[in-house]
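Support case: user asked for a sample of complex input and structure output to validate their parser. Sending the pair below.
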Amino acid sequence: MTAIAAPPSKAVATPTRTRWRDLDRRRIWIVARSDLRQLLEDKGFWMPMVFLGGIFFLLIPTVLLLSITRIGDVEVVSQMSQTLKVLPQSAQAQIQGTSDQGRTAYALAVFLLAPVAIVVPLTISTAIGASTIVGERERGTGEFLAHSPAHEREIYLGKLIASLLPGYATTLLGFGVYSLVVNLFVGPEVGGWFFPTQQWWVLMLWVVPPFLALTLSIVLRLSARVKSTAAAQQAAGLVTLPMIGIAYSQSTGALFGAQNAGLILGAFAWVVAAVGLARGMRAVSRSRLLGVNDGV
Amino acid sequence: MSASPSPPGSMPPPLIELSGVRRRFGDVDALAGLDLVVPENRITVLLGPNGAGKTTAIRMITGALDAHDGVVRTFGLDPSEHGEEVRRRCGVVSAKPALYDRLDGHANLAYAAELYGLGRGPKVDETIRAAAARFGIEHALDHRVGGFSTGMKTRLALARSILHRPDLLLFDEPTSGLDPESSHAVLEMIREMTDDGRTVVMCTHLLLEAEGLADKVVVMEDGRDLVAGTPTELTRRFWPGTVVLVGAENPEALGVAGNIPGVRNVEADTDPGRVRLHLDGDRRIPDVITALVANGVRLTRAEPLEPTLEDLYFAVRTKKPIADDGGRQLTPSDDAPVTDRHRQVAALTGWPGAEGDHR
């Protein structure tokens, strides 16, 4: 064999440190766009997504709010109205409406259905995110990415965006529909269109995005590590449960008069999401894209 | 790429150099001290059974995997340090075509074009169509890849590999799953690729593929290179003797061949009307034929047998002793330099020379 002039270099087991400014944003978007295009091409994916958004943002609110405001003398409305009356004074002050039906519908629309805004994007985005890296490996396309000039972190961020966007876009669209439904059915009870409230704007623009990013940072790490998409989906389900719990606590906090609950929770979520993303980026390596046993 | 002409028969400067490369996957040594030199503008075939380390070697070359030990240089660069630069100049076709089934052919190629920095637009579309046309797949660009046959997928993967005009093409068993006709077409295409100055490294366990295609052959086993060289070099090195297949109207008359000077051995052929004569060298052929005729043998056939790559491969792989191999002389010739590697190979394969008696 020919002698090699270059000095021998021992194994480079750890990847060289890459700074944010070294990453090619264009390439991140190329990876994201390709993934999004594949999702759009797959009816089997986006049809359930549309159904999910339709059920949570249109069907359930319509049925519930219509039942309460139009058939107000039913037993359940009466019971709910009594329940609202036992809430602390500060909580009751948050609920608007002059009639029992109106107050019940308002509480339901503004506070109790708020977690839906988290459930829908989390369900959609985790479904995508869970299969995004392990899916490349299972289909053999991880080999293509591993041999491409794209940096592992560009691939990670591209896949993060491709997982986040469909969930968030569905949520924003659903939010618009939900606003319309609430204003149409509850608005007349409280003196006109009132939705979205300040808490909902905070929820949609300040709390949901970091929650999604944080959840996906964990889900993508799982996706990089597990052996199959099925395993990734199972593990991702466990991650989303506490997130939904937190969403409930946020809405409860708002109901009980903690006006800044959303702002504080959102700020905390942004910080944790930033840390989660930074750590998650290290989860994607070429050996994981190739699916080789690297003992890690 | 600068493809400076090299003297006929000699190898151009190396484009890839691997030296003592080791790579473990868990408890398994995928590469156990691989040495590999790939000359520029040539087709180098990595030949070996499944698990020999061929695919891992390809991954080392592009930096898709890092070496645990040893030196890897591609285009003179360390791929673990300059991975992006190295990979930008490589085109890879893996054993699975690695295409996105939900996208159409054009979208698959467009994705690669963008990742490799070609951008988008009519000019790139033209490049995509030209690459697809080269592999006869342009008619299917608008169809979903999920509906493609294996042959179509391979052609599309080949088209994708050349989109960005790479200097180095790495093909990992590109004909796996193809019918013989498609395999032949793909191999022809690979051969054409060196015409415009590209270097090709191809992995295969199919001997027929390597035969006639390889400018250089590297036989691998257990993560090591067993033998390496041009097919001619290997033939000269390991089959210095000459074997002539001889047939006669009166086969029993061929018995005299054993007494003719220059004939070392007479071996029965599978055809009872023929024998294989093992001679000292090619120069003996006219004398032996003349002597046979002079002895009244009415020859119907006299054909020098060229050892094939298959002969070499199986000799190495099955570690057959000479006597079991039809009398073939597997000892390195006297004029060929004997290296430690050759002795190691000899020891591994049970060939004479393992004790280092050849200098």
